[in-house]
C-alpha cells in the first residue's frame, strides 16, 4: 500500500538522485515521470503509481519546497487535461507508451480538433470526413477555435467515418500528426485584436489506423471522456480572496478615489460578494473531491466565472472613465499563454466575452445542469434517428 | 482552511431533525396553525429542545448545554428552514443564547439550554449587527416603554431588554404586555412588548451582547435561508416534472430549465457561503467578513427561489392551500431580518477596504 509517507520517501529519493539545482529541466521531469510521481493516480509505468488522485498534493508539496521545475502545466493544458485522460482510458498499450511521457514532460504540445464552423454547440454534427484507404485514413475538412495549433505536435481529432448513420454513431476519434503536409494552421484574429486561436484546414491528411483511439464509430463516446475532463479541470482550481477578475478592479478602486461614484460602489460591492461566494463554492468543490465525494458543482463553476468575469471587467472599463475610452494595443499578436487578467481592463472586457462560449456555451451548460443534475426532461429531438447526411444544414 | 463540508455527525443530526419534522411538521398543519390561537408549535419545540437537546447546542457542557458549535446549529436551521417550522429556535437557542453567553447570567443560560424556558432578545428583527436599536427607560430600577417587531416574543418566558443606560436586562414575561403584530411572515410571529414598571435584573453590558447575538443570528440565518431555498427548488423541480401542458412535462421547456438551472447554481453558492459563515462563527476566524458575505448574498437567493417557486407553480402558487406562500413570506422577511443585504454590503465596504466615495 502506497501511502503519504511512502510518497514522501519516493519524492525524497527522486530529489536525491536528480538534484534540481544541477539537473537539466527535461531530465528531471522525465525522471519524475519514470518514478511514478508525475500524476500518481495514473498506472505504474505511465507516470503514476495507481494511488488516489488526492495524494498528488503530497508529492506537489514536497517538490514545491525543493526548487524542482514543473512541466509548465498552463502551456500544455490541453494535453494534460484532455488528451491524456482519453488516451489513458481508450488507448492501446503502444499508444499509451508512445504518447503519455512526452506529453507530460512538455516535449510534445497537444491541441484539440473538435469544433467546426458548422458544428459548435451541436458538435456531433461535425462534417470533417475520414475515409479508409488501406492501412490509413484520409482526412478532409476544417476545424476552428483551435488554441495552441501553431505550437502543437499532436492533435486529438474527431471526424466522420460513416455519414449513413445518425450523427452520434458515425464518428471516430484519431490522434493526428500536426506536422503532416496536409495540415494547414491559420491564425484566427479575435475581437481583442490578437490571435490566440486558429483555424485548421485538413487536406488529404493521412492518419495510420494505428493512431485511431477506440473503435470505429465510437468516437462520440471517446470524446465524452475528453470533454468531462475539461470540466473537471475548470472546476478544480484554488483561489485566494480577490484572486480572480475582482482583484484588479478592487486595486483600482483603492488606489484611485477620484474615480469612485455611489452607483459604481454598490455594483462593485455586489460583484465582490459574488466573487467571494464563487470562490468559496470552488473551494467547497475542491474539498468534496479530496474527500472522495465528487459533486455536480463543477458544472456550475464555469457558468459563474464566465458571468462574473464579464460583469466585473465591464464595470472596470466604466470605472476608468476617460481612460476607459482607450485600448492598450490592437496589434495582431500570437500569445502563447492565455491570461484572462493580463493587460488592461478593455482587453479583459473583450477577452472575457469568450468565457461564456469556449468549452461549452453557458446556454448548453444550463441544459446540462437542468437535465443531468435536476433530471428535467430533454427537449424533444428531431435529429436522433436521422442519418447524418440527411440533417438540415 | 475553513471546512465547508458536512461531517458524518452533522449528517446524522440532519437526518434526525428531518425525521422529526417529517412526522410532526407537515405543511398542511403549519398553514392551519398560522391562523389559530397558537401560531407557534410548542409541542414540536419541546421535542427539539427537550427531547433532542438541541436548544443547548451553543452552550458549554458545564453550563448545562451540549457544547457543540455553530456548525451543528446551522444544520438544524437548514432543516427548520426546509419545513418553515414555527418554532423559536433561531431567536431563543441562537440569538438570546448568544446574548446571555456575553453576560453573567448562568442560571438563565442553563434554563434556555435545557429548553424548559424560551428566551427572546427584545430588539426589532430588522436590526443588523452593529446597527442602532431602541431601548427602554429606567425609573427606580423599573422599566418603562415599548419595543416593536420582537420575533417570537409571544412564546418567550424571559425577555432580554436593552435599557437606555446601556445595560441588558432580563425581564420575566409575566412583567410585560406582549401584543401580537400582524406579520408578513406567518411562521415567525412578531409582537410589541410594553413595559409599564416592569421588574428587571441587570445581566450585562447591552452593546457587546446585542452585537454578538445579532452577528450569530445573521450568520446562521443564512443556513435557514439555504434550507428554504433548497426546499423551494426541489419542490418546484418535482412539480414541473409532473405537470403537463401542451402534451409535455412543463419542466422540459428550455425557458424554464434554464431558470431552474440558474437557481440551482445560486443554491450551490449559498451552501458554500452559509457553511463558511457557520464555520467562521465556530472558529472565530474571519467571522465578520464571513457573516457579512453570507448575508449580503443569501437574501437574494432565498427570495429568488421562493418567487420562482410561486411563478412556476402557476395558479397553484397563488393559493393559500399550497405551502409555497409560507416560503415566500419567510424568505422576504428573512431578507430584512438581522440587516438587509445592503446593510451587510456597507459593513463589508469597511471590512475589506472598498470605501464609499
UniProtKB/TrEMBL annotation, chain A:
Query: Residue ranges of the Acyl-CoA dehydrogenase/oxidase N-terminal domain?
Result: 28-107
Entry cofactors:
FAD
Please report which protein family the annotation says this sequence is part of: Belongs to the acyl-CoA dehydrogenase family.
Keywords associated with the record: FAD, Flavoprotein, Oxidoreductase
Q: Which residues form the Acyl-CoA dehydrogenase/oxidase C-terminal domain?
A: 217-374
Q: Which domain of life is it from?
A: Bacteria
Q: Which residues form the Acyl-CoA oxidase/dehydrogenase middle domain?
A: 111-205
Q: What is this protein called?
A: Alkylation response protein AidB-like acyl-CoA dehydrogenase
One Pfam family hit: Acyl-CoA_dh_N
Cite the InterPro entries for this sequence: Acyl-CoA_Oxase/DH_mid-dom, Acyl-CoA_Oxase/DH_mid-dom_sf, AcylCo_DH-like_C, AcylCo_DH/oxidase_C, AcylCoA_DH/ox_N, AcylCoA_DH/ox_N_sf, AcylCoA_DH/oxidase_NM_dom_sf, Mycobact_Acyl-CoA_DH
UniProtKB/TrEMBL annotation, chain B:
Named cofactor requirement(s): FAD
Record family assignment: Belongs to the acyl-CoA dehydrogenase family.
Keyword hit for Flavoprotein? yes
What is the name attached to this protein's record? Alkylation response protein AidB-like acyl-CoA dehydrogenase
UniProt cross-references to Gene3D superfamilies, sorted A to Z: Acyl-CoA dehydrogenase/oxidase, N-terminal domain (1.10.540.10), Butyryl-CoA Dehydrogenase, subunit A, domain 3 (1.20.140.10)
Q: Where is the signal peptide?
A: none
Keyword tags: FAD, Flavoprotein, Oxidoreductase
Q: What are the Acyl-CoA dehydrogenase/oxidase C-terminal domain coordinates in residue numbering?
A: 204-350
Which top-level group of life is the source organism from?
Bacteria
| Acyl-CoA dehydrogenase/oxidase N-terminal domain: residues covered | 7-93
Origin species, per record, is Streptomyces pseudovenezuelae
